[in-house]
Amino acid sequence: MEKHDGGDCVNDGSVNDSRDTQKNRKSEQLDQFKVDNKGKKITTNQGVKVSNDEESVKAGVRGPTLIEGIHLKEKLMHFDRERIPERVVHARGYAAHGEFELYESLKDYTTAGFLQTAGQKTPVFTRFSNVAGSLGSVDTARDVRGFAVKFYTEEGNYDLVGNNIPVFFIQDSMKFPDLIHAVKPEPHNDIPQAASAHDTFWDFIANNQESAHMVMWQMSDRTIPRSWRMMEGFGVHTFRFVNSEGKATFVKFHWKPVLGVHSLVWDEAQKIAGKDADFQRRDLWECIENGYFAEYEFGVQLIAEEDEFMFDFDILDATKLWPEEIVPVKIIGKMTLNQNVTNVFAETEQAAFHPGNIVPGIDFTNDPLLQGRILSYSDTQIYRLGGPNFTEIPINRSVCPFHNNQRNGFNRQRIDVGQVSYHKNSLAGNTPSASTKEEGGFVHYAEKVEGRVIQARSESFNDHFSQARLFWNSMSPAEKKHITQSFSFEVGKVQSVSVKQQVVDMFSRVDNEMAALIAMNVGVNEPAGEQSTVEQSSPALSQERTNRFPYSLKVGIIIGDGFNDQEVKETIENLSKYGVWTYAIGEKIGKVTGSNGLVIHVSETFSTTAPVLFDSLYIVGGSAGNQAKFNSDSIYFINETFMHYKPMSIASTGQSLFTASEAKKGPGIILSDANTASSDEFVKAIAQQRFWDREIY
Ligand code: HDE
Predict the structure, then answer these.
(1) Which residue's CA is the nearest one to ligand 1's atom 18?
(2) Quick one: 582 and 493 in the same domain?
């Protein structure tokens, strides 16, 4: 049994010394709860050994089942209660453990213990999610991705519950249930699942124009990430750092993926949904299992308290970002996700994130969206996890002990000792007692507030289109094209002509030309909005200039018998040198043999896999039992890969397949022969991922 008591929170900045102990503290804590049933005897939950787990207790072999069959009763009743309510939003998600390492001290800005000493490490648990779909929906739906990080600090849990988009749809938490009702499947027919392409969502958008900026992001490539390892994360709200002198600094948090920001294309995302609904969770799981850890640098944008009103947007408005060119992102550390969970239900499903979980040195601001979240998350967890004791569930426990006079409730696990459960008291020497600030007590930032009780929005929140246009101006031609296409898809699915017209009118305030194109595609009149006059752009918002690495990307090798041994061997070796994963795809699972006897294991067939599941193809070709089918399957793979702007290398024996396909020579197409086989050009093209200037029929 775990000992809940004993030990003190480290709170004096001396955490550096216990770095390694700290790093493993959460894993050690979780280990105490792990049970391995392998090799054990079945028992009831009371520990009684079971003699028969196949048949219920009956009066005669063909007779009625008896109530005294206690094992059957317990087994079924437990089974009947296996499900808990899924999250009302962000239901579909997946998580991993890891650690956060600080590069440089932030003690000038905050007293937060985990941000004091360079090199310091803190265990983390990070859950990625989709917002709209239910738990059983698909990974690659077009949707905002949740990016929730729980830091198990020595001063208690700190949760940064963010998204992969830096702004939000609405400005005030009052509107959140409305937004979610609008995006979820429509109530009368429960259609569509995990999709915003329907009337109620777009009706909400057109009638709540504060959403304009976020919708531009939502329609961009950001909402179809190639991998959770390749997307940014944002705290979204403005938070506050407070240092030892009590001085506050406004802060926004960023996660920057080491692998850069990369996306799928929409046609591909939809096809993946059918071929592998678990595409993104599989990606994370496989990479971590194989030692290809997911890494993100942690950055902060800082604004001095006295500069609060220096900007042409309100820093408390969650529909606004702070352009990085104006307020640079200071990189201060790195998170590495390096361990998969042991049990998804126990850890991922029961994890309770909460923006209200803050530690001394970090505080809230008056952002009205953030304020509502402080209420909603603990409330939802009490409902979802069956009562107020969810903080005792292993994944949610802090690594430092907790003591207070809160008692009882469903599923209480700790056994509080003694007769006293109130404060103040004399019977327990007035303990547990409060801590002063110097002792590490959390003291709320003493912000001066004044004002009348009012239900209204600040006028400084009124500009909904300037940053929406800033985003549009910052996009590359390819990104702009994708945005126009996704609007045309989404709004094209809307049945109400009036809603479609309202949407294009609204977005003509972002860009006339874009809206006119969408209007044409969805069959409504030329839009009638007045375009924002913003001319600036923020290059940091485009995905075009991102990091590019080949490692952990997947290449499908289409191969039959009779290939050129030397050429293929060299290419595969070169790919594996750069950490590219290769999968031989053939007519049947087994082996193929080269013209000089080299044997290659074929792990996939044209029916077990699909072109959309690979980042690139290596077309080797060759002979097969059913050559006609082999050729037509290969050509299908080539066409799809070409259409999704992905790179391909064609071996000497694969040229005829390429010629017979609809693919054309050009960017990202590497035609090799025996002499150029090991060329690094292919590896570079894989790292590039997409060739947007390719001409697609
Ligand atoms: Fe959430 N949100 N949210 N949200 N949210 C939840 O909490 C809510 C908002 C975010 O992996 C719920 O435990 C309100 C912004 C993530 O477990 C719920 C408002 C951002 C996750 C809830 C917001 C988020 C949630 C559902 C408006 C980005 C998944 C289950 C005031 C900064 C965390 C749960 C995980 C989950 C409420 C807006 C991100 C109902 C009321 C803005 C990543 O409490």
Answers:
(1) 377
(2) no
